Amino acid sequence: MCRPLCWTYASGVLAVLAARTDDTNPLSGLVVADRPEPDVPEGWRLVRVKAAALNHHDLWSLRGVGLRSDELPRILGMDAAGVDEDGNPVVVHAVIADPDAGRGDEVNDPRRSLLSERYDGTFAEHLVVPARNLLPKPDALDDVEAACLPTAWLTAYRMLLRSGARPGDTILVQGAGGGVSTAAIVLAGAMGFRVWVATRDAERGRRAANLGADAVFDRGERLPERVDAVLDSVGAATWGHSLRAVRPGGTVVVCGATSGDPSPVELNRIFYQQIRIVGVTMGSRDELAGLLAFCAARNIRPVIDRVLPLHQAIEGFAALEAGDVFGKIVFTIP
Ligand SMILES: NC(=O)c1ccc[n+]([C@@H]2O[C@H](COP(=O)([O-])OP(=O)(O)OC[C@H]3O[C@@H](n4cnc5c(N)ncnc54)[C@H](OP(=O)(O)O)[C@@H]3O)[C@@H](O)[C@H]2O)c1
Fold first, then answer.
1. How far is the CA of 178 from the centre of ligand 1 (A)?
2. Burial class (CB in 10 A: 0-12, 13-18, 19+), 106
3. Of 79, 86, 174, 331, whose CB is crowded by the most CB atoms within 10 A?
């Protein structure tokens, strides 16, 4: 078990940061420390963070993916709910980008950055973000619940919106317990899809069924019929199954590759079966607003694995690295 390093500044804010990156031992670069109060650039707002959710992106950052060594130390974290300078409860959108530069979709801005990449992230008592990145928090969601939505849940929401599936169609979700998978299972059911789940673990499959999955299969198992769309966040371990599970003309939506890049990609199957492959990253501010409203209106609550105080973040990172998680891990700040 590796321990986080600690140091303190005279007057600062508690933060969890990447001090260095290490592909084989990512947690060795994790530091809990006091950092100086952030400056607030013009047009940006200061947020007092009350809850911040952990994502696999934070582990990738510690492995050096998307985080250059000359940008260290960098405060980690993409998801947050808190209070703005006027005392308004807010949810933070993690995509720092210009919609005009992305032809109306800020995620397509070539200069887009996600919180914790070029700008400090949400695992800190105080956070600064552009004013447009703050959305009102619905009363129906508490801080811990709202903090789960801006990354994994937003991505699952966009994956479903871009799946080409219509209500009543069947969606296969690869993986049962990941942040994206649990979000996809709950949201797909609420959107009127038939939801099938493929998992590597029977107990996790039972938990997926409790979330509302209509059927659960072993990883790689032949399905009773082909599905209209597959949502894949797992990568190498599931890609072949995803391509075999989707009907001719159906869609495989991919947002991540936790188990690595698939090889081979199987181009012959993709063109012969006319499979649409759609890549998704995060979602727009408008989509996050839609997701918040949808969850509030339909009484949808994110699946939460555990809640920890921010200074115990290492415990959450270790669980995520071990794959010992079902739903979101959330850090709180009193
Ligand atoms: N593009 C984006 O904007 C975006 C947004 C969010 C996440 N992501 C990416 O999507 C991926 C999923 O993220 P997540 O938050 O849902 O959490 P995660 O902890 O990476 O879990 C994802 C799923 O992968 C399965 N899994 C994990 N390790 C595996 C392995 N070695 N072999 C086979 N299956 C494995 C698990 O399935 P079981 O439950 O069946 O065990 C789990 O449900 C990550 O790589 C993340 O970086 C991308």
1. 5
2. buried
3. 79
Cβ of 321 closer than 6 Å to ligand 1, yes or no, is no
Q: Which CATH architecture has domain 163-279?
A: 3-Layer(aba) Sandwich (3.40)
pLDDT (tens digit per residue) in 252-310: 999 999 999 998 999 999 999 999 999 999 999 999 999 999 999 999 999 999 999 99
Distance CA 116, CA 59 (A): 11
Q: Give the dihedral of Cα atoms 193, 194, 196, 202; nearest 10 deg.
A: 110
Sequence ranges of the domains in the chain:
5-152+284-332, 163-279
Alpha carbon distance 38, 129 (integer Å): 11
Residue 181 CA to ligand 1 center (angstroms) comes to 8
State whether the beta carbon of 220 lies less than 6 angstroms from ligand 1: no
207 lines ligand 1 (CB under 6 A): no
Cα 180 to ligand 1 centre (Å) = 7
Distance CA 242, CA 276 (A): 12
Round to whole Å and give the CA distance between 213 and 22. 37
- Is the CB of residue 182 below 6 angstroms from any atom belonging to ligand 1? no
* pLDDT tens figures, 133-171: 999 999 999 999 999 999 999 999 999 999 999 999 999
Run of H or E residues at 83 = strand 81-84
H/E stretch holding 249 reads: strand 246-254
DSSP SS3 for 260: coil
In this prediction, the residues of the chain whose per-residue pLDDT falls under 50 are: 1-10
